[in-house]
Structures are given as structure tokens and as C-alpha cells.
Write a structure and sequence with these properties.
This protein is α/β, with parallel strands linked by helices and about 160 residues long. The chain contains five helices and five strands; from the N terminus they run αβαβαβαββα. Strands 2-1-3-4-5 form a five-stranded parallel beta sheet, with helices on both faces.
């Protein structure tokens, strides 16, 4: 699921990215609003990710350096409109997927964006809806993060 995609899925991912980028191109920097919780980013990445989140218009309100802290679900869901999860911060991808499934069941309100080096491409469609609203390949850039956040918000609204 995470390492390989069928050829048709690459086409779908590309078209989803184009749609999301078209959506984001209509937004000027800072037009997203809300709070974001950052989960699983190490100390080398967290400052850069916080800056990109701020540039996208969100307020980073909480960060957990270790993904295992994601079990405090109530606090995350009541303080954040977005949860940005570094899937690589978990001990194993399967552990991260299980945690995200549990999180989505218990806390359906925040939009969830996954970041990982293990995915082949940015995937801004909703085919991973059980665990997230959009997925970005690490390393991040501000423009791609803004596109991912916009896609996550849009996909989450469609699912609600």
C-alpha cells in the first residue's frame, strides 16, 4: 500500500494533485485558518514544519515529538482543526496506520495530513480516507504543505 502503486493509481494521484494545486493556486498564502497539531516530527524538522504551517495560515498549537503521544486523542481533537502526522515517527508503518485508524474513529473532526518518506508521491485524493485526508512525501516544502492542507480540508469536508 505505501511502497508501490499500480500504474492507474499514479495517473489518479497526478490528477488529484492537479485538482488540489488548482484549488490552492486560488488561495493566497495565509488564507487557510485554524490550528494544527504536529505529531512525530523530530527536533531537526519541527521548526521548519512550524514555519511552513504558519505561512499556510495555521497556528501550530501543539506538537508531539514522538508519535506514541498520539494516544492523547481528546486533547488533539479539541484543540486542532488539522493534525499533521509524520508517519515515519512511528516505530513501524503498520503501527502508525493502526494508530491513525483508531484516531479517526475516536476523533473524526480534525482534517488529517500524513507526511512520509515511504510514499512514492504526494497523494491529495481521498483513497486513504480511513487514516488520512491527504498524504505528502517528505521532505516538505511550504507550497506543497499548503496544497496538502487545502486538499485535506476539501477531502474532509466531502466525507463529512
Amino acid at each position: 500500500m505505501w511502497g508501490r502503486q499500480p500504474k492507474d493509481a499514479k495517473k489518479l494521484a497526478f490528477s488529484d494533485n492537479v485538482v488540489a494545486l488548482d484549488f490552492v493556486s486560488g488561495l493566497e498564502r495565509g488564507q487557510l485558518s485554524g490550528n494544527a497539531c504536529l505529531v512525530g516530527f523530530d527536533e531537526n524538522d519541527i521548526l521548519a514544519v512550524r514555519d511552513m504551517v504558519r505561512q499556510a495560515g495555521l497556528s501550530p498549537v501543539m506538537s508531539c515529538a514522538t508519535a506514541s503521544l498520539m494516544r492523547d486523542l481528546q486533547m488533539i481533537s479539541t484543540t486542532s482543526s488539522f493534525v499533521i502526522v509524520n508517519l515515519d515517527g512511528f516505530s513501524d508503518v503498520d503501527v502508525g496506520v493502526d494508530a491513525l485508524i483508531k484516531f479517526r474513529r475516536m476523533c473524526p473532526d480534525p482534517s488529517v495530513l500524513i507526511v512520509s518518506r515511504t510514499v512514492l508521491n504526494d497523494e491529495l485524493g481521498s483513497h486513504r480516507r480511513a487514516i488520512a485526508d491527504a498524504t505528502l512525501r517528505a521532505p516538505l516544502s511550504g507550497e506543497r504543505l499548503a496544497a496538502g492542507l487545502a486538499a485535506a480540508r476539501c477531502n474532509h469536508a466531502e466525507a463529512s
